[in-house]
Design goal:
Blueprint (H helix, E strand, L loop, with lengths): L12 E2 L2 E2 L1 H15 L10 E3 L12 E3 H11 L17 E2 L9 E2 H9 L4 H10 L14 H11 L11 H14 L4 H14 L10 H7 L8 E5 L29 E2 L6 E2 L7 E5 L3 H9 L9 H4 L6 E2 L6 H9 L1 H5 L4 E7 L15 E7 L14 E6 L9 H17 L2 E5 L4 E5 L1 E7 L2 H8 L19 E2 L6 E2 L37 H11 L9 H9 L23 E2 L2 H16 L10 H10 L23 H13 L14 E2 L4 E2 L4 H16 L5 H17 L4 E2 H19 L9 H4 L1 H11 L8 H11 L8 H19 L49 H13 L5 H14 L5 H18 L1
Parallel strand pairs: 12-17, 17-20
Antiparallel strand pairs: 1-2, 3-4, 5-6, 7-10, 8-9, 10-14, 11-23, 12-13, 13-14, 15-16, 18-19, 21-22
Amino acid sequence: MEDDREWMYEGRIVNGMFSNEWGDKVDEFVAFALRHPECVNGGTAIRCPCTLVKCQNKKFLNVETVKVHLYRNGFVPDYYVWIYHGEKQIHQRCSSSVRVSVSETDQMVSDNMNHTTYHRMVCDAAGPEFNPDEEPNAEARNFYDMIRAGDKPVYEGNSKHTQLSAAVRMLEIKCRHRCSQAWFDDMSNFIQELLPQDNLMPLDFYSTKKLVRGLGLPVQVIHCCVNNCMIYWGDDSDLNSCKKCGHARYKQKVRGSRNRLYIRKLKVPYKKMHYFPITPRLQRLYASTATANEMRWHSEHHMEDGKMCHPSDAPAWKHFDGCFPDFSSEVRNVRLGLFADGFQPFGQSGQQYSLWPVVVTPYNLPPDLCMKEEFMFLTVLVPGPTNPKGKIDVFLQPLIAELKSLWGVGVQTYDISKRQNFQMCAALMWTINDFPAYSMMSGWSTAGMLACPHCMEDSDAFRLIKSGKQSWFDNHRKFLPMNHPYRRNTKDFIKNRKVTKQFPGVRSGDEILQDLNNRGLRKVIDVDAEVVNAAISKTCGWNKRSIFWDFPYWREHLLRHNLDVMHIEKNVFDNIFNTVFNIPGKTKDTYKSRDELNKYCRRPQFGQNLVTSKYPDVPFVLNKSQKKDVLEWVKKLRFPDGYASNLGRCVDANKLKMFGMKSHDCHVFMQRLLPIALREFLPNRIWEPITEISLFFKQLTSSSLTDEELRNLNEQIPVILCNLEKIFPPSFFDSMEHLPVHLAYEARIAGPVHYRWMYPPERYLRKIKHKIMNKAQVEGSISIGYIMDEAAKLASFYFKEGDPTLPLKEKRNEVYLDDIVDDDMFEIFKPPGKAICAEGKRYLADNEYTATHLYVLMNCPEVQPFINVFVTEKRKQFPNLNDEAVNALTEQEFPSWFEKY
């Protein structure tokens, strides 16, 4: 392209005269610009690309004036790509798994226009309406201050950093490493000692925050009733007391003598929440070249081989598109997920305090960016110290109102990737919560015998006689085909019981809404909600009408609230492991369980011995030596770096148990280790169902899924649960052991699990928790830290290295040798690495050498053609061999065959 446009900088003046050929080219340039209305202002004005400081593609002038300027001053240097006059940008992608979308041409033009990258950052943060050439108003003053700071070197002679770039880089380092303000001030003072006296480096954290305050996004502080009855917002913003409980809004501090009272003038509320509007945060995704293109990924990619790798591939997304074609026709409209969870900011031993952040994340992004921390937006901080429980809807009112506005009206947004304004709308797809919070969001109680939100009133749960707990034992035969033999089995399940009924299916949104209306349930924000809902909840599983039903599209969703696979998998693992290891206080095989076992099942061999009054051992519990063997094996296990934590530290060899296992530890143990650990110690009829439930979770949590695979899982899981019911007692099966029967259905409707489970939200809550610097003001401390983090996040998109989602430091065993490329090296040896311990030498044993040799051959792409030849020869030689036999033969004979080939 540069070869085609060298005329812009050559031949303007020939023999002291303006060249006619050059003038014709200028006319072609102007005509090209006028053919792109999005780059024309008022029909006749375009940006002037001459070299004048006031122009340089910043100022709109009429076309004749532009021609005069170009004749007189020439084009701004290196403006080969006319991006300000309608020419498409050229985007560059990184080869990393996390992509960068930084425009080469934007960088080129910025450099050529004497605009630094940080100038673009300020303009992107200010929005398309911001014009640097106009006189500033009070609101725009922050952006002008930053632009001026972006023009001043941090000290005379420094060409790398300006005052602005140094400030945002320091702020980003503080946020990334979670440093305190005192550290920032001390480091700033130390840097001052290293720089010349006339430097412009910010003196402390306050001056840095003041300089970059324009990069932050808004936050609203809303007063609340101390009893969580209401928020003083909207029509209720002027009230001085709660309209439900009558509690005063403001604290009253009385001073003075007994006869004279003084009330302080400053009104301090008893409680307040923080609300972070979602609209400007979504707009910023389209304002930056690093993210604007990626927000259209969901509509531009195509499924491969019928595999769902993103929610946009799933039926729920496509069903919503079909119901609302006007919304789906604009691919830049945003699909959102919402999750809420509580945490204790002071640790387990500190003050009891329950803080509930509500976070929203967009699903438009590609898989490698979706659900990343950089694209999770804190919207509501529900204040403590008490758990809001069913009253969380009170604090969601501002968010629901804003999302309703984004659905019905939308907001004008500037898309920098297409350089045009569009009306951005948004829709909430579903919520993501653990099981207790599921009740808070949906309004369906997740406690008791109606806890399952899919079965609802069709549940067959019952209360156990001795323990008094609810049991979902023998609640899964109704999911089997009508001709399945388990339906007629009267021995292995509840004795003398056959199952003829069938699960009716999940209710539609219209059916649920009709049920809510018929029962007369109220929203918690209604004045009489507490009394009315309490009476109705005694006769059904509903405890309120969720505020999410205010959305006009909510009834059309195929899935509104997700069952959390993370917590379900952990609970299933805990029950199996604690029961098999017979952990006191946690095992489900208790004396009460044995006593009531034969009241429900026909298992006399496990009943109490009338002579000794003892209960016999059961085959699914390990003995002491077997427990020791398993725990010793776990203690010696080593995993790839970053794959799992050190499980050896969770082993208690004295009490023969494991402790302190996090959700991800249980995830790894359940899917990878449990079948191996129990293989030699349990009978096949017990080991196989445990292995099947392990493989079920492994397949369910795959990164890509096909409809056929999910149909198979949906058919297999009732059989797996029935096989477990044949082994374990009724007390084993609580609601968590029942919920897996619905997980394959949800995955088939909504897509891969890792977009809808609580791992990313839980990690994000940990990040929020680290922002608490002042434990006396928890919410305010988080709010300030989050605003600063947003400013640093925006700035990091404009750093030289580009993408903030790339790892900023190497992991322990990673090295990057991008400049070293050996074409003769086999592919398997190209990924670089480094030693994790001191250098040493030893000879491999024969079995180790054979295994290593085989691994290299089987995983080397260059050897694959020879493997195909070997397999073809063996199939001709032995036509009746199945795939397993061929694989075994390949492992045994291929290395020696390959050596002779």
